[in-house]
Amino acid sequence: MRVYILTIGNEILLGETLDTNMAEIARGLVEAGADVSGHLTIGDEVGAIARAVRDALAGADAVIVTGGLGPTPDDVTQEGIAEALSVALHVDEEIVARVRERFRRIGRTMPEINVRQAEVPDGAVVLPNPVGTAPGLRMESGRAILYVLPGVPSEMRAILEASVLPEIRARSQAPAPVIHLVRTAGIPESEIAERLAALGGVAGLSLAFLPDPSFGVDLRFVFRGTPEPERADALALARRSLGEAIYTECHGARSAVTLEVALGEALRARGATIALAESCTGGLIAKRVTDVAGSSDYFLGGFVTYANDAKIRDLGVDPALLAEHGAVSEPVARAMAEGARTRFGATYGLSVTGIAGPGGGTPEKPVGLVWLGLATPDGVQARRLQVPGDRRWVRARTAQLALDWLRREARRTP
Ligand code: ATP
Ligand code: MG
Questions:
Q1: What is the spatial distance between Cα 114 and Cα 118, in angstroms, rounded to a whole number?
Q2: How far is the CA of 9 from the centre of ligand 1 (A)?
Q3: Which pTM value belongs to this model?
Q4: Is 47 left (phi over 0), alpha (psi -120 to 50) or beta?
Q5: Residue 413: its pLDDT value, please?
């Protein structure tokens, strides 16, 4: 089943709205076993919408349109579709009654302009909208189905899942692909690609690399028609090649297990606790650790010690170390980690000190230089990073690498 996606809205063409609907619809379609044959974004203009809808219908089994269904004069998707299918618009009294009722329930009378929302092309079947006023529509043209959904993402999603995807799933001849997600941290995309080169020969497998500075690299395995033993072999090869860089994996395209969730699981399994001493990340690591509900089980607390005096006062860093080596140095990172560990009485103390930029770099200590310290019951370790990118990127990458180091350490310790 070939499905074409049309997103409508001037604000998308102006770059003000990011077209997340396209991505969401495409993911849903792939999981439903359909092929997305193309995508186009067009402005709120009747003629352009009509042409695009006609072209899309000519080359696909189904077309999904979103956006421009609202009551304001700039929303002209219904007109465009009526023109494309050479049908007239009529007011659907049931929709008017439903919209009137929604307004009544919140103690308002429906503005007459909202009647526009109830204008639907002749022959359209209304798809109920459980979360808003703009209804979805379903029409047929030749052998193709045309679905029209509102632009508001929550409303689009509700109708897509309730009315569109079930029908597409039922009509797709191809069996739904088997999707498996593998999430990694602490290993560059290019190195993953090298290690997994042998997977290029697995029939029916398409492997997507999804890198993100704060989440590492996600690997999405999409198997189409690959027999189960070969799927299992492919995943086993990935596990062997990537080892402990994998922090979680699951069936399906999405996972709620972030790196900080995986870290929390590793700490909890060992009854271990952590304390933090952050400088250039300014609390970013603490923020991510505490994004996880229940993190009070293992997170004792932390210091954001930006000034040298704070490192001395709050963490007990020896002023002589700061004077001799500077704040961004191995001895200071070690002392910060040990200070956090002992002051909080934690199993692990994790520290970060670095130069996030754009200023403050020198030839010996360039922007992006970061020292991490990790104090454990067996002693203190330090690690030097040279993180590329701007300030935001340096901080995000540093937090990610620090959390990952701690995760690996916590997992290794029995
Ligand atoms: P409304 O009844 O709110 O007018 P609508 O169906 O007319 O809904 P639009 O006016 O096109 O939809 O968009 C409403 C809002 O939904 C936009 O301001 C935007 O925030 C969001 N939106 C629209 N299209 C998209 C899209 N493709 N991706 C993400 N968000 C979108
Ligand atoms: Mg609108």
A1: 7
A2: 7
A3: 0.74
A4: alpha
A5: 72
